[in-house]
Amino acid sequence: DLYIYKEDNNGFIDYAIVENKFIENFLQQYRQLLGYINYYFRFGITISINKKYSLEDAMCYIESKLKSIDDKDFPIVKIDKCFNDNPYIIKSYHTIPEDKLRQMPIYHMVFQLNDIERKRIARKARGK
Length: 128
Known about the structure:
Mean pLDDT: 88
Low-confidence stretches: none
Structural class: alpha/beta
Strand order of the largest sheet: 1-2-3-6-5-4
Distance between the termini: 41 Å
């Protein structure tokens, strides 16, 4: 987990919170992140450690979990699958309780430790 801030003459300026867990615990990770973030943060980040799924399946898993959330305090306004031409980042926008007009982005990324695609092509190269 990581807290990103800037220090100036007036004190600290909150920028972001990064929360990481295994992908199977995505909803717990997501809720924990929302518990840490306050009005002053600019954005949040979830990093899901994946040993189970292909990267594409992992992103679909996260997207489906986000779509299943019905949270009255931090409602999800929008989900983008691609960000800056990178299909492996999902960006969700949330209304925050302190200011119903402001939307806070949360970036969802996968730390991919299961590389099914590369294992498959390596087997083909060896004729297996």
